[in-house]
Design a protein that fits this description.
Length: 258
């Protein structure tokens, strides 16, 4: 429950200043739960009350969701003594208003692509839990050609050189790009993809994450750029996605691969 003064709430969530909110209230243009209000100093419950300003309903945005196209050289943590963190790529104006932003999931320091940042702990937990079955999609560049036999080996559940057992994973090569592979994972062990290819005597030279669940990285984002996501788009994260469609879409990101 978030109890807040009406004028402060509207000013926080819209472009209107508190002075302008006063004017709108005077003109009878502000409603709370369908009833026109006559004063700005009433308190509302931001989690529950429906506030309508000038015909538009205002939802309380408790959480923030950010899509980042991570560059190599940054670590996916909130603090690191030595290397810059992905949070350093998010402007202070955002971090000052939305406290507690963290990366939901990790990419290695030398990996690039889609990192999802939020202050919504519950959603982050759902994304990361293998039980929730949210797939993550990656393109990898290998130092030896992709072999057809990998498809079955990965599907059967690889055993890493360390002895760790992996869940079944889907992998495929690309026609005319023999050293590239596309992979779908439902778990996130340390350096997992690199270690999976090492177990079939290949080597990952470059890795780029293209998609989380049903949410593809925005093609227009350059490396190091971010965007604040609309709450309705975040729902795609938890939608399923077809492997071949995700693979088809992944071609859009070949231009980033070194
Ligand atoms: N697997 C890896 O090996 N590295 C990553 O960054 C992500 C998955």
């Amino acid at each position: 429950m978030e109890i807040i003064r009406l004028d402060r709430f509207i000013a926080n969530q819209t472009e209107y200043s508190r002075k302008e909110v006063k004017m709108l209230v005077k003109k009878g243009l502000v409603k709370v739960n369908g009833v026109v209000v006559s004063s700005t100093d009433i308190k509302i419950d931001a989690d529950k009350d429906d506030v309508n300003v000038n015909g538009e309903s205002i939802c309380y945005k408790k959480y923030i969701y950010i899509m980042l196209n991570k560059p190599a050289g940054y670590v996916c943590s909130t603090k690191d003594g030595e290397s810059p963190t992905v949070l350093e790529l998010i402007p202070d104006e955002i971090k000052n208003v939305h406290k507690g932003i963290f990366p939901a999931g990790r990419l290695d320091k030398d990996s690039e692509g889609f990192v999802f940042l939020t202050n919504d702990g519950e959603l982050s937990h759902r994304i990361l839990s293998p039980k929730k079955h949210i797939p993550k999609y990656y393109i990898v560049k290998l130092n030896k050609p992709f072999e057809k036999s990998y498809v079955q080996q990965f599907a059967e559940g690889l055993v890493l050189k360390s002895g760790e057992q992996c869940l079944s994973a889907r992998v495929d090569g690309y026609e005319n790009d023999n050293n590239y592979a596309f992979i779908e994972l439902y778990e996130g062990k340390y350096h997992q993809i690199k270690r999976m290819f090492a177990s079939v005597e290949n080597h990952v030279e470059y890795l780029y994450r293209t998609q989380l669940g049903g949410l593809m990285m925005n093609e227009k984002l350059g490396i190091g750029e971010h965007l604040i996501m609309l709450h309705k788009d975040v729902e795609n994260l938890e939608k399923s996605c077809d492997f071949l469609t995700a693979k088809e879409n992944s071609r859009n990101f070949f231009r980033h691969i070194k």
